[in-house]
Structure formats: structure tokens, C-alpha cells
Amino acid sequence: MIPYATAAEAEAALGRAMTWAEAAWFRYSAATPDYCLYCHNVVILLVVYTLAPLPLALLELRAPPKLTSPYKVQPRVRLTAPEFLRCYKDTARVLLLTVGALQLVSYPAVKMVGIRTGLPLPSVGEAAAQLLVYFLVEDYLGYWFHRLLHTAWGYDKIHRVHHEYAAPIGYAAPYAHWAEVLILGVPAFAGPAMVPCHMTTFWLWFVLRHVEAVDTHSGFAFPFNPTKFIPFYGGAEYHDYHHYVGRQSQSNFASVFTFCDYIYGTDKGYRYHKQAASLAKMKKDMAMYNNEKGRLAAFDGWKQD
Question: What is the mean pLDDT of the segment spanning 286-291?
């Protein structure tokens, strides 16, 4: 809650006029307790989870397979509308019961690490730098948590639920055992705990992290995806291989970037897979070229006759 009764008091404390964003934040949050602002995370998470995967889900359900198959990582796997709905309902329930319950008790930790709600709002540069740190911290810690979940006990008791989707979809990004949702919440919160931010940045972090998870689980690898311009970004094809291998997978554990897998040697299976796929494509293209060459030669011989 902002400790100023009027905008004039807030501007006097700032020593300047509020920006339009700060004025909007003042109007929205001035009379709202910090605890309620923190609990917005539950609503934000459910809204993003509902809307972010929806376009690709509709594309898979409604578009002709010949239109979408070139972009699907596993084109032979197509789910029905009831299967999409079941995934959504099961995941939303787990998110509500785990994340929602966690919100009720975790606010003291948020205050302790220094997540603030007052003025001034962070600059674009400050927020971008903090978000970059959060992605790097979450990616590194998430890599090791993910590897632990692929031990025999971790997989059988917890992680196998997430791997029920060998060909993942956007709605399956947070589809997991309730314990996994809580476990992987630790790397997500570690960054803001290390580098405290404003509540608006905190919200934005969880929005971006969830959108990224939806993207890597989407099952589609579009050539025009803007994430291709992000250095070391894994993407859907990279993470899809991890799901495709399943229980025995010891490759592609990183959630966002690829450098942890490269540094610790857990991308070898994927690199071998890519090399084998490239070689197979090369052989196929060469066969098509030879067939076409033979056809043209036969046509030329016919013309000469």
C-alpha cells in the first residue's frame, strides 16, 4: 500500500511529477493492501495459462493437418478437443490448489526479501536487467532440479506425471504432480529473492516465465518465431526431444537456454539426434535429386528420338 493519501503527497515525496504509469499505479494500488497485490499472482497465472496456449490449441484442432504438419515437431500426434480440455482442467485445478494455497502463506517471505510496491516504479532498463537475472538464475537452478527429478525415485514418484505428454502441448507446460509444481517454484522465486524488484516486475516475471514454458511445450517450431533471435534459447524442438525420449531421457534438462546442457554434456543425445536427422534428410534430398535427374535424362532421350 502506498503511504500517501493523495497524488500531490506522492509527487512531493518523489520530488517530481509522476509519470503516467506511476499515476496509474498510484490510483490502482494506493488503497490496496500489499498482501492483496501479491495475491494477484494467482489470477495472473490462471489468466495467462488459459489464454497463452489457446491460439496454438485452436490451430491444432481446427486447421487442416497439411497446413500445420510442416511446423509440428511430432506431426503424427494430434490430440482431440476432450483431451485438451482434460489437460486444462487437471492442470488448472493443481495450479489453483498448490499455487493458490502457497500464496496464502508465502507473503512474509516476499516482504522479507524486499519486493516493494511503492513509488517510484522501476525504469525499463532496471526491470529488463532484473528479468534477465531471473531467467538466468531460474534456468541454472531449474536445470539441476530437473535432473534430480529424472532420478529413479524422482521420476517414478513425481516427474512421470509431466511426461504423460510425450508430444507436449502448450496446456501441458505446467501439467505436473503437485509436488513438482512446488519444487520448481523454488528456482522461479530464487531470482527475485536474490535481486529484489518492484511488484510490477514480479508479476511480469511470472507472466514471461509462463509464456516461455508454453512456447517450449507448444509442439510447434515456426521459422518466424521471434524467440529464434534470443541467444542460446532452446525452444519447442529442443524441449520436445526431452519429452519424446521420456523416462530414459538424460538430455535437454534446461528449461530456457541451452548452455547448461552444453556445459555439463547433457545435450549429446539431442545433438546426435539432430545429426542423424540431417543425414537422413540429406539422403532423402539426394535420392529425390537423382530421381529427378534420371527423369530429365529420360525426357531428353525421348526428345532426341
Answer: 54
